[in-house]
Structure formats: C-alpha cells, structure tokens
Design a protein that fits this description.
Oligomer: single chain
Strand content: 15-25%
Mean pLDDT: 94
Number of helices: 16
CATH superfamily of the largest domain: Mur-like, catalytic domain
Largest sheet: 9 strands, mixed
Radius of gyration: 23 Å
Number of domains: 3
Length: 470
C-alpha cells in the first residue's frame, strides 16, 4: 500500500456525512496528494461535509454522480461507507490494478504501533469507549477513534505515539477492506455476532465472515478477546492464531467472568477478583458484557484493579446508546437512537426493569426478523408509538400475530416531534419512562441514526427551555 502521498493522485469515493472521509481528505491535502472527491449525493445534501473542506481549490469535485473518467489514472482509491463493493467504478479500478482501500486499511498501513480493534454487532461503541476510559488512567496518550461518529481515525493519526495502544471501533465495512490486505489488530475484541445488515450482505454467513476478519489475520503473539456466551463469536477461537481470552456472564472462563456481582480475571493460574459491579452507572445485561470485555483488555495490558474500578464506576455510557436524558414532567427519558436492529431494541427494553414503559420505535427494515421483539413488546411495553417505515410495517404484522392490543399502539407517525408529544400523553402510572429505541434503520426520515438522535435531543431540550420560561 502507498505510504507516501506527495504528488499521488487519490480519489475519495463517497464523502458522506459522518466525518471520516472529511478527515481523510484534510490529512491527504497536508501530505500533498492530488485529490478528486466524488459522491452520488448532491452539493446541497453534502453541505455540512463540504463546508469543512471546500475552501480549498486543490480538490476536484464530482457530485450528484460518479464519472468513469475520474477513476482513470488514479494511484489510489479510498472507498467510504455506503459505497457498494460491486460498484462498476470499483470493478474498473480492480481491472486496471488501481489499489482500493478504506480509512482503516490506510490507518493500519501508516501506524507502526500496536492497535486494539473492537467490533461486534452490538456494544462496540460502548466497549471501545470503556477500554479507552480505563487505559487513559495509566496510558495517558491513549486515543479512541474509528466507527464511533465523533472521532474519525484520520483526525487523530498524527497525534498518536507508538506506545499509545489506540482503540479503534471497527465496523464490518472496515473489516471487509482490511481482509483484502490480510490485516487484523494486535488485540482484537468481538463483542457479539448477531443477525444484522442483511440489506448489505448476501446472508448471515457472509456477515459473520466479515466479523471474523478482526481475528483471522492475527499472529501467534496477538490476543483475541471473544464473547463466550455468543456461539458465533465463540467459534472464532478456532479460526485465529492469536492467544484467546473470553468474557462470560454465565461461567468461569479464561478471561473475565461474573460471580455474585464481582468481576474475576482468570489467566490459567489463580482467578483474581477485580471489582464489584454494584456501583456502575450503565444499565442492562448487555452493558455488563461490555464491561467484562473492556476489563479483559485492561488486565491483558496490566492495568491496576483500582484504576479499572475507578474508570468503570465513573463511566456514564456513550452518546445515543441507552443514554439517560433526565426527567421531564416526572417521566424518565432515554435516547437509544443508535439501536438499528430488533436485538438492540430488545436489550434496551430488558434494561428498563419494573418501569411503566412507552416505547418510540420503528423505521426502515434491514431484512431482519421482528418476531422476538414483538413478543417482548407485548410483555413489557405499556404503550407503543411506531414511526413510519418498512421495518415498522413488519413489526406491526408481528404484533398482530402475538395479539398485542391495538388500543396500546399508534403507528405510521412520520413526524418525530409528534411521536414525542404522543409518548408524553400516553405515559401513565408509577416509574414512567419514555424509551426512544427504534430497532430499525433511519434513512426514510433522517440522514442517519445520529441525525435521528440529535433531532430527539432537540425536542427534549426545547421542552426544557419552554418549561424554564414559564
């Protein structure tokens, strides 16, 4: 892979709105690369990203379409999320031996130190953020970056020291690109592998193969940290050369496990008691798994128990992931907008123990099964408000199958402000909670799940301002 970019012709395919490609563009400009940026989104749709880079005249832009002529005679193509791998333009590049990379491939090629890579269907943002919080207690220059929306990899590349053990959140899309270059991190964490992204992958086997990439190309001195309680993740142990550690809520394993609310670390000699979970601030069994995964990494790197406990007990979670927004009109409100699968929505509902729960859910389908979510909603949800979308339609059909009462549900709501207003209206009883956990994709009503989250936050904040003015 190219590591010196001065005078090299580089095409960025897909600028997007998440910030990752913008960071790559800025970094490449500093290196003296000759840049072309192309995206099927229009200039207006990309305004927030373009505002950060358009002041320069050193970039050629093709927006609202791709042109084959842009792809000719390039030294490198940087493919970004949302760009299909079977694109005819990428096929042209492959045929003409033009290297194709993504930001993770570039990062691994340019950073010479050790990397911690965290992936999984659920929990990767929380786990990577928690690992970072723990490591910062002793590795002061530790950095978190990657798929986590707030910190693109190339916004931090130049700040990282070789001994800082950067923590990268890696999506399946990152791993697909890395697999082509046989790249895996020195410490690889897989939180779980659950059915998801079947709108992008041919089937679950293909999706699982993508996640396997996090450990597949590790060497014998590397470390894999796997979820023992998830059979698909556990199966990765036989497919890596690395030393394997597990984490489990259910049994004693080599790695971290839970016993009577205490976390233990067992490395094959004597189990060591690390910390109690009685004072943690994040809710749900899924977050206990995330904590165990993070502590396993911390102990492998020799972090002291008191520093682990301090960081874990202070950790309040990650923005938009079952994020507690406070009480409004005596109703607890949670923003879980990054819940884009039925499994994620179920985990959020399960975390709301003994609550009178109004759920705002729904959106676009990702070819996922909503049967189990429908059963759980019938059991736990007092009132359901469904946003418009194909995923919502699918869930509605499953709710009919389980005889969920029609009077406890409103569907087809195509305005988030209306959904929030209705949620407050239908909240009743003791321990009232409004949970915004869509369990579906966002693109029918929002730019992405983060836009959806920010819009929900704005509704809460606007309500607070109105209340304060009275």
């Amino acid at each position: 892979m190219i590591t010196s970019f001065k005078g090299k012709k580089v095409l960025i395919m897909g600028l997007g709105l998440h910030g990752g490609a913008v960071a790559v563009v800025k970094w490449l400009l500093k290196q003296g690369a000759i840049l072309t940026v192309t995206d099927i989104k229009t200039e207006q749709e990309l305004k927030s990203s373009l505002d950060k880079i358009k002041s320069t005249k050193k970039i050629k832009f093709t927006l609202g379409r791709h042109e084959l002529s842009d792809f000719k005679d390039q030294d490198l193509i940087v493919q970004n999320p949302g760009v299909p791998t079977d694109s005819k333009y990428l096929q042209y590049a492959r045929k003409n031996k033009i290297p194709i990379v993504n930001e993770a491939v570039m990062f691994f090629g340019l950073f010479s130190g050790n990397i911690i890579g965290v992936t999984g269907t659920r929990g990767k943002s929380t786990t990577s953020s928690l690992i970072h919080a723990i490591l910062k207690t002793e590795i002061k220059n530790n950095i978190l970056a990657g798929n986590i929306a707030t910190v693109p990899m190339f916004s931090v590349l130049d700040k990282i020291k070789e001994d800082s053990w950067p923590v990268l959140e890696l999506s399946s899309w990152h791993l697909d690109g890395m697999a082509e270059y046989r790249l895996s991190p020195q410490i690889a964490v897989v939180t779980n592998v659950l059915i998801d992204h079947l709108n992008r992958y041919k089937n679950f086997i293909a999706y699982k193969r993508s996640k396997l990439g996090n450990v597949k190309y590790q060497k014998k001195d590397d470390v894999a940290v796997l979820n023992f309680d998830n059979k698909d993740t556990k199966s990765f142990a036989g497919k890596t050369k690395a030393k394997v550690y597990y984490f489990s809520l259910k049994r004693k394993v080599k790695g971290t496990y839970l016993k009577k609310d205490w976390v233990y670390f067992y490395d094959g000699s004597q189990p060591k008691r690390i910390m109690s979970l009685k004072n943690i601030k994040i809710l749900g069994e899924h977050n206990r798994q995330n904590i165990l995964a993070a502590i396993a990494v911390a102990k492998i790197l020799g972090i002291k128990n008191k520093n682990i406990a301090q960081a874990v007990n202070k950790f309040k979670g990650v923005e938009y992931r079952l994020e507690y927004k406070g009480k409004k009109n005596n109703i607890e409100i949670y923003n879980d907008s990054t819940s884009t699968t039925p499994d994620a929505c179920m985990a959020a509902i399960e975390a709301m123990t003994n609550k009178s729960l109004v759920l705002i859910a729904g959106g676009e389908d990702k070819q996922l099964d909503y049967k189990d979510l429908a059963k759980l909603i019938k059991k736990k949800v007092s009132f359901l408000i469904l946003l418009a979308g194909s995923g919502s339609d699918k869930l509605s059909r499953e709710l009919k199958e389980v005889d969920f009462p029609a009077y406890k549900m409103l569907s087809g709501i195509d305005d988030l402000a209306l959904a929030y207003s209705l949620a407050q209206k239908y909240s009743s009883g003791q321990d009232k909670v409004i949970l915004f956990s869509p369990g579906a994709a966002s693109f029918n009503m929002f730019a992405n799940e983060f836009d959806r989250a920010r819009q929900f936050d704005k509704l809460i904040n606007d309500q607070t301002k109105k209340t304060t003015k009275r």
